[in-house]
Write a structure and sequence with these properties.
Blueprint (H helix, E strand, L loop, with lengths): L3 H14 L8 E4 L1 H10 L2 H8 L4 E5 L4 E5 L4 E8 L4 E6 L5 E7 L2 E4 L8 E5 L13 H11 L3 E6 L6 E4 L5 E2 L6 E4 L4 H6 L3 E7 L2 E10 L2 E9 L9 E12 L1
Antiparallel strand pairs: 1-2, 1-8, 2-3, 3-4, 4-5, 5-6, 6-7, 7-8, 9-10, 9-16, 10-11, 12-13, 13-14, 14-15, 15-16
Helix pairs in contact: 2-3, 2-4
Length: 246
């Protein structure tokens, strides 16, 4: 028994030194893009600089991974590799991306297709009922970028207070009860270098151009200078509202 005890202790020590496999499962968001947009005000410019991917959803148990870029959801197969790294094989394409963990960050390694991008675990997941994939990034963006209470300094409803809720609900802005920021896709192509927001009341909505400057938010008409048979091309029109964050 005296000889067996040291062997048992040695085995316990070796077992304690071995590291368990890291599970990357969960929702990861591009917090750097959010922080840059909040600091500089320019949303599309920040997403282009630190994107294009905005959110990863990983289920290691199912061997599945998908990302959202604000326009589409791309599904792939998660393949484990040596260390804390994984390869993502995308269905129907001979395209692969590499993911790895660096302390508390998920790193999408630079590739021939995309630059290096970094993600952190989403603080809010399943943020509201029937939330689509990609909504965790939007929730965090809306909470940071448009969070707080805004006062209407100029425009219809002057003096009233406006709340942009992170789930897309809108209070206090006359003629709208829902909003969505343009992140990518057709809306971005239509607005060019301008940032745009969709304002909706019931089933009816329309695009607007906005300028975010610290605690001031200008909402301007989106004027379409394209012909009727062309894709819309929106440019800033008259200022309809000026909001100031309290």
């Amino acid at each position: 028994m005296r000889h067996a005890l040291p062997l048992l202790l040695g085995a316990a020590l070796l077992g304690g030194c071995s590291s368990a496999a890291v599970d990357p499962s969960g929702i990861w968001i591009n917090q750097t893009a959010i922080d840059e947009a909040n600091q500089e005000g320019k949303l599309r410019e920040s997403l282009l600089a630190y994107g294009p991917n905005l959110e990863w959803q990983i289920d290691a148990g199912a061997g599945a991974a998908s990302y959202s870029n604000g326009f589409e959801q791309v599904e792939g197969k998660l393949v484990g590799q040596d260390g804390n790294s994984w390869r993502i094989d995308f269905y129907g394409d001979d395209i692969h991306e590499q993911l790895s963990l660096d302390d508390e960050e998920l790193v999408q390694n630079a590739s021939a297709n995309l630059p290096e991008q970094r993600f952190v675990r989403a603080a809010n997941t399943g943020t509201y009922a029937n939330a689509p994939k990609g909504s965790s990034f939007e929730y965090a963006l809306y909470q940071t970028y448009l969070g707080g209470t805004w006062k209407i300094i100029e425009g219809t409803g002057q003096g009233g207070l406006v709340l942009f809720h992170p789930d897309g609900n809108l209070e206090g802005l006359p003629g709208a009860n829902r909003f969505a920021l343009c992140l990518a896709g057709d809306c971005a192509a239509m607005s060019g270098e301008n940032d745009s927001i969709w304002l909706q009341l019931g089933d009816q909505g329309s695009p607007w151009i906005f300028v975010h400057d610290g605690n001031r938010l200008e909402i301007l008409e989106a004027r379409n200078r394209a012909r009727i048979d062309e894709m819309p091309e929106y440019t800033p029109g008259n200022r309809t509202w000026l909001l100031e964050r309290q």
